[in-house]
Amino acid sequence: MKAPLLLLAAAVALALVVFFSDPGRANIAPPAASASAPAPASPQQAAAGQLVLERCGTCHSLDRLAEHRQGRAGWENTMRTMAQLGASWAPNEQPVILNYLVQHFGPR
Ligand code: HEC
Questions:
Q1: Structural domain tally of the chain?
Q2: Which pTM was predicted?
Q3: Closest C-alpha residue for ligand 1 atom 32
Q4: Which candidate in 35, 57, 81, 82 could, as Cys together with 87 as Cys, close a disulfide (CB 3.0–4.6 Å)?
Q5: Looking at residue 86, which CATH number applies to its domain?
Q6: Residue to mutate, 85, 88, 97, 100, ligand 1, most ligand atoms under 8 Å from C-beta
Q7: What's the domain range around 47?
Q8: Residuewise pLDDT in 10s, the chain (108 residues)
């Protein structure tokens, strides 16, 4: 009696076809690595953010910056004060940091 065996094989084949052709499966992608962090607008923005974290986040948290929203002149002033307190950055980093501060912690 081969019929039950054939039926079983057919059922397995059908199950495989259904499984692999299920369009819903394509949507089950592994979660993106950066699912928790908002995607930076551009690689430059991400680099600037990293720079600010390195230059401004060592003595105090960056919450300090968020609490101190201000315009460009204000941030220029703060950066001068921070330099006096011991913060340092390369001359070419100055405008990158300043722009990031104004963009992300500007006045509301
Ligand atoms: C060398 C350590 C150091 C670094 C690096 C540093 N800060 Fe500060 N920052 C301080 C100190 C000290 C204070 C004063 C804390 C206080 O008064 O409570 C401060 C306070 C601040 C404040 C609050 C100012 C106020 O009037 O209350 C802001 C805003 C700030 N820092 C921004 C920055 C930014 C932007 C950077 C990067 C460019 C930076 N800090 C890097 C040490 C640092």
A1: 1
A2: 0.72
A3: 65
A4: 82
A5: 1.10.760
A6: 85
A7: 42-108
A8: 567 777 777 777 666 565 566 555 555 555 454 444 456 678 888 899 999 999 999 999 999 999 999 999 999 999 999 999 999 999 999 999 999 999 999 998
Please report, to the nearest 10 degrees, the dihedral formed by the alpha carbons of residues 84, 86, 92, 95 taken in order: -60
d(CA 40, CA 15): 43
Whether residue 96 is contained in a domain is answered as: yes
Q: CB neighbours (10 Å) of residue 51?
A: 16
Q: Cβ < 6 Å from ligand 1: which residues?
A: 55-56, 58-60, 64-65, 68, 78-79, 82, 85-87, 97, 101
